[in-house]
Amino acid sequence: MATEIRVPTLGESVTEATIAQWFKKPGEAINADEPIVELETDKVTVEVPAPASGTLEEILVKEGDTVEVGALLGQISEGAGSAKPAPAKKSDGAGKAEKPAEPKKAAAAETVDVVVPSAGESVTEAEVGEWMVKAGDAVKADDTLVELETDKAAQEIPAPQAGTVVEVLKNTGDTVQPGDILCRIAVGAGAAAAKPAAPAEAPAAKASSMPPAPSASKMMAESGISGDQVSGSGKRGQVLKEDVIAALAAGTAAKQAEAPAAKAPRAPSAPADGEREERVRMTKLRQTIARRLKDAQNTAAMLTTYNEVDMGPVMELRKQYKDLFEKKHGVKLGFMGFFTKAVCHALKEIPAVNAEIDGTDIIYKNYCHIGVAVGTEKGLVVPVVRDADEMSIAEIEKKIAEFGRKARDGKLGIDEMQGGTFTISNGGVYGSLMSSPILNAPQSGILGMHKIQERPMVVDGQIVARPMMYLALSYDHRIVDGKEAVTFLVRVKESLEDIQRLVLDL
């Protein structure tokens, strides 16, 4: 009975391979799982283990041939006595013959697929960002492999197990969906075998004692490069197909670097505009921000009303209790806690600002989920403080501080940025004195905070300098009337200028 040796599945995007070398000849004994043939693909070199013990009966495909996945490579004859034993060594003098050493079995590496995780009901796709690893890299469990960008946040994908990255299936910029395979990791005892040796650091590799792989030899002959121009990364320094490709790419890059100097035109009076420009791909998050903001302008009947607030009472209260507050609650006392509470009070009185339009219906929200806009290096994100109306100022400050840390580290979850009913944006931290914020659809209102600046104000008939802040409320005029918008902003102003109202819940 014969056992077939076939080309294994090498990945979704790999359909063929080249026979690099056979480790056995017809008639030689084989043990199960012992490497029998080496295959080269355009991504990685793999060893095919023997599916059973026996004798290699026949080789059907010679070295250098290209075969498809599933193709028959050879056959192994099984059964007792089918494997030819190695000849016994001479007696040791005591009448006992030494036993021939048994060949070691190669440990098979288990392959684990790293897939795109589900990121929430409203997130159906993501864009592959920066890869932290490449094929051949060894990784530890939980090491970051790649960053995925969705329309809401960036998400780091960790390694599920320790091992070696054997294949990267998606490139930076590719659009992927939950369940798509990003890369494959070889784990287990055989993982080390899947990792190609690190290329030599010297510019020109020393000639290897191993002959180049057939596919590499053919490509070298066609390209006119010699063996001393290629660094071998295969076993025992063997030159593989990908080594030749890398050498050709390096040569092309060097020529391109020299070309401008050789073909430089006469010195122009000024460099071309194109040479002073930089083209950078927009992140998925930035693309979504642009689309959503423009959609909000096109859909809503957006209008903005303005007012100003004397921040003196809040600043005095904060100055008086900030040390005690931080000591008791473990978080600094800022302005966002006061503004969030003031907004919640105003939303209770003017529920239209806390509502949204769904077709021909208006959905009134009997809760206050306040989104707090946070600027990051990758764009604006809006985590949501849920049920802020039921929280104390200390609880709100703790939650906002937590969101700030997560936003800076790129750790905000999708669920933490969904479901907001109203948004607060603080442009004052960047020095903005006045602006008109854009609605965060499908919400009907957003409050813009601005820089605190001392201005001359008339107080009790006297002109005095007061720390003033302009407030801006942008609202959807389809659902919020002008009177309601102005009243809402006045209520926020009154709460902040008469701080006892917040403390007494008035």
Automatic annotation (TrEMBL):
<keyword id="KW-0012">Acyltransferase</keyword>
<dbReference type="Pfam" id="PF02817">
    <property type="entry name" value="E3_binding"/>
</dbReference>
<comment type="pathway">
    <text>Amino-acid degradation; L-lysine degradation via saccharopine pathway; glutaryl-CoA from L-lysine: step 6/6.</text>
</comment>
<keyword id="KW-0816">Tricarboxylic acid cycle</keyword>
<dbReference type="InterPro" id="IPR003016">
    <property type="entry name" value="2-oxoA_DH_lipoyl-BS"/>
</dbReference>
<dbReference type="InterPro" id="IPR000089">
    <property type="entry name" value="Biotin_lipoyl"/>
</dbReference>
<dbReference type="Pfam" id="PF00364">
    <property type="entry name" value="Biotin_lipoyl"/>
</dbReference>
<dbReference type="GO" id="GO:0006099">
    <property type="term" value="P:tricarboxylic acid cycle"/>
</dbReference>
<feature type="region of interest" description="Disordered">
    <location>
        <begin position="256"/>
        <end position="278"/>
    </location>
</feature>
<feature type="domain" description="Lipoyl-binding">
    <location>
        <begin position="2"/>
        <end position="77"/>
    </location>
</feature>
<dbReference type="InterPro" id="IPR050537">
    <property type="entry name" value="2-oxoacid_dehydrogenase"/>
</dbReference>
<dbReference type="InterPro" id="IPR036625">
    <property type="entry name" value="E3-bd_dom_sf"/>
</dbReference>
<feature type="compositionally biased region" description="Low complexity">
    <location>
        <begin position="79"/>
        <end position="88"/>
    </location>
</feature>
<dbReference type="InterPro" id="IPR011053">
    <property type="entry name" value="Single_hybrid_motif"/>
</dbReference>
<keyword id="KW-0808">Transferase</keyword>
<feature type="compositionally biased region" description="Basic and acidic residues">
    <location>
        <begin position="89"/>
        <end position="107"/>
    </location>
</feature>
<dbReference type="GO" id="GO:0005829">
    <property type="term" value="C:cytosol"/>
</dbReference>
<dbReference type="InterPro" id="IPR004167">
    <property type="entry name" value="PSBD"/>
</dbReference>
<feature type="domain" description="Peripheral subunit-binding (PSBD)">
    <location>
        <begin position="211"/>
        <end position="248"/>
    </location>
</feature>
<dbReference type="Pfam" id="PF00198">
    <property type="entry name" value="2-oxoacid_dh"/>
</dbReference>
<comment type="subunit">
    <text>Forms a 24-polypeptide structural core with octahedral symmetry. Part of the 2-oxoglutarate dehydrogenase (OGDH) complex composed of E1 (2-oxoglutarate dehydrogenase), E2 (dihydrolipoamide succinyltransferase) and E3 (dihydrolipoamide dehydrogenase); the complex contains multiple copies of the three enzymatic components (E1, E2 and E3).</text>
</comment>
<dbReference type="GO" id="GO:0045252">
    <property type="term" value="C:oxoglutarate dehydrogenase complex"/>
</dbReference>
<feature type="region of interest" description="Disordered">
    <location>
        <begin position="203"/>
        <end position="236"/>
    </location>
</feature>
<feature type="region of interest" description="Disordered">
    <location>
        <begin position="78"/>
        <end position="108"/>
    </location>
</feature>
<protein>
    <recommendedName>
        <fullName>Dihydrolipoyllysine-residue succinyltransferase component of 2-oxoglutarate dehydrogenase complex</fullName>
        <ecNumber>2.3.1.61</ecNumber>
    </recommendedName>
</protein>
<comment type="similarity">
    <text>Belongs to the 2-oxoacid dehydrogenase family.</text>
</comment>
<feature type="compositionally biased region" description="Low complexity">
    <location>
        <begin position="203"/>
        <end position="223"/>
    </location>
</feature>
<dbReference type="InterPro" id="IPR001078">
    <property type="entry name" value="2-oxoacid_DH_actylTfrase"/>
</dbReference>
<dbReference type="InterPro" id="IPR006255">
    <property type="entry name" value="SucB"/>
</dbReference>
<feature type="domain" description="Lipoyl-binding">
    <location>
        <begin position="111"/>
        <end position="186"/>
    </location>
</feature>
<dbReference type="InterPro" id="IPR023213">
    <property type="entry name" value="CAT-like_dom_sf"/>
</dbReference>
<feature type="compositionally biased region" description="Low complexity">
    <location>
        <begin position="256"/>
        <end position="272"/>
    </location>
</feature>
<comment type="function">
    <text>E2 component of the 2-oxoglutarate dehydrogenase (OGDH) complex which catalyzes the second step in the conversion of 2-oxoglutarate to succinyl-CoA and CO(2).</text>
</comment>
<dbReference type="GO" id="GO:0004149">
    <property type="term" value="F:dihydrolipoyllysine-residue succinyltransferase activity"/>
</dbReference>
<keyword id="KW-0450">Lipoyl</keyword>
<dbReference type="GO" id="GO:0033512">
    <property type="term" value="P:L-lysine catabolic process to acetyl-CoA via saccharopine"/>
</dbReference>
